[in-house]
Write a structure and sequence with these properties.
Number of helices: 9
Largest sheet: 8 strands, parallel, barrel
Structural class: alpha/beta
Order of helices and strands: HEHEHEEHEHHEHEHEH
CATH superfamily: FMN-linked oxidoreductases
Number of strands: 8
Distance between the termini: 30 Å
Number of domains: 1
Strand order of the largest sheet: 1-2-3-4-5-6-7-8
Radius of gyration: 16 Å
CATH class: Alpha Beta
CATH architecture: Alpha-Beta Barrel
CATH topology: TIM Barrel
Helix content: 25-40%
Bound molecules: SN-glycerol-1-phosphate
Length: about 240
């Protein structure tokens, strides 16, 4: 398995396609894995992407057949699969890596430390590459699943300094990645100005996701300094999405 964190640091542009197993039945996984490479190669060309990942996870606390689902995906793809967990139960040895998220924008202890403690013993025994990630929910213009499930408020986009301070604190706490999340299906993605300010102030790779639907938006996010962009809904709605 490639070293996930090193490869994110070394590549100029990484793109992750986010898939929520709750929204894709097991028997649809093979067809998805067969169809996605042509979408990926078109995006690769348009955006000069160096590498792709699948992020797998969802905000729902359910975990029906998560492991089996990941196993099915790995059976049909060579792409690195990274767990983007919504809960400690979303774990599978069939994946390659896991973002160990702390929702640092919020003040709910459950998402700051309790889930992490719950997962600790299982993670100690895993072969997965675990990457500590400071996860910041940014106001995306509507109530998103992360906000709803975590019962935390997003950081308003008009207070850039506050977002920068959260990101810098995330780095000081030892996080190896910082993730600016406008929330799945956000009406307003994270402003490029915010991406620029945050990426100038931290020296760990910056991930940006939520509400990204056009090539122009994604290009602007990379240009502003993001190392990785995450796209979910656009591809979920249309497997042939190409911006
Ligand atoms: C990943 O939640 C996002 O950061 C995905 O958002 O579904 O809006 O692309 P979309």
């Amino acid at each position: 398995m490639p070293d996930l964190l090193i490869s994110i640091k070394q590549a100029n542009r990484s793109l992750a396609v986010l898939i929520d197993p709750e929204k894709m039945p097991l028997d649809a996984v093979a067809a998805f894995a067969k169809a996605i490479p042509s979408t990926i190669s078109s995006l690769k060309e348009k955006l000069q992407i160096d590498q792709f990942f699948f992020f797998v996870g969802g905000s729902s606390m359910e975990n029906t057949g998560f492991d089996e689902w990941v196993k099915e995906l790995k059976k049909h793809t060579d792409t690195t699969v990274v767990i983007f967990p919504g809960s400690p139960e979303q774990l599978s040895e069939n994946a390659d890596g896991l973002l160990f998220l702390s929702l640092l924008s919020g003040r709910n202890p459950e998402f700051l430390i309790e889930h992490q403690v719950d997962a600790a013993r299982r993670l100690k025994e895993t072969h997965l590459e675990i990457v500590p990630t400071g996860y910041l929910l940014i106001d995306g213009g509507k109530e998103t699943a992360v906000q709803c499930v975590s019962k935390t408020l997003p950081l308003p986009q008009n207070n850039v300094e506050n977002i920068v301070n959260h990101a810098y604190a995330a780095q000081l706490m030892g996080n190896q990645l910082v993730y600016l999340e406008a929330g799945s299906g956000a009406v307003k993605s994270v402003a490029t100005e915010i991406v620029r300010e945050v990426s100038a102030q931290i020296n760990v790779p910056l991930i940006v996701g939520g509400g990204l639907r056009t090539i122009a938006q994604i290009e602007a996010i990379y240009k502003a300094g993001a190392k990785m962009v995450v796209v979910g809904t656009a591809i979920e709605e249309n497997i042939n999405w190409n911006g």
